[in-house]
Amino acid sequence: MRDLVIAIMALALAAVVAVGGIGYVNIGIASRVETSAAAAAGFRIYGGALTAYRLSNRSLPDANSWRDELAPYMPGGAPRAPIGWAWSYGHDAAGPWFCFSAAEAEGRPQSLRKAADAFPPGTITVSSECAAPEGAPDGAAATYRPIRS
Predict the structure, then answer these.
(1) Cα dihedral 29/33/39/41 (nearest 10)
(2) Is 52 within 8 Å of 73 (Cβ atoms)?
(3) Confidence band (pLDDT; 50, 70, 90) for 109?
(4) Nearest-angstrom CA–CA distance, 103 and 88
(5) Element (DSSP H or E) covering residue 11
(6) Residue 98: is it exposed, middle or buried by C-beta count within 10 angstroms (0-12/13-18/19+)?
(7) What does the alpha-carbon distance between residue 114 and residue 43 come to, in Å, rounded to a whole number?
(8) Domain segments of the chain: what residues?
(9) Model confidence over 5-57: pLDDT tens digits?
(10) Closest to 148 measured CA to CA, from 121, 129, 118
(11) What distances in angstroms separate CA 146 from CA 21, 38, 77, 95, 123, one per listed residue?
């Protein structure tokens, strides 16, 4: 009987050690979730502000002063980017765009693609640089085009 109790305790100890090694949490998941949420929310806020600006002014904001020009159309304030990320704006022949980008690309395209999934196909392009054409290599820049020309 004593040997049976020792064997059961040994098996229980082995199970605890085996399961303990499997249950780790990936630390990077929190930053990917934060990045994805910040990108999706920012694109919605900036897209709405751009639409309101265009309806009021019948033009696009200037690429140098876009933050100040769009500020009145964002009652909750401009979206803040997580540390290491930045917002930018511009317009080209394809229309106006907002870009959410970071200097480092490691592990970041996945979170940007997740944010892009919340929008209609073709609206957000994940690439290595802002306003890159479709089919450019993945990187740490997501370009949102709320209005196509």
Answers:
(1) -170
(2) yes
(3) confident
(4) 13
(5) helix 2-22
(6) buried
(7) 13
(8) 26-144
(9) 787 887 877 776 666 655 556 666 777 888 899 999 999 999 999 999 999 99
(10) 121
(11) 46, 17, 19, 8, 7
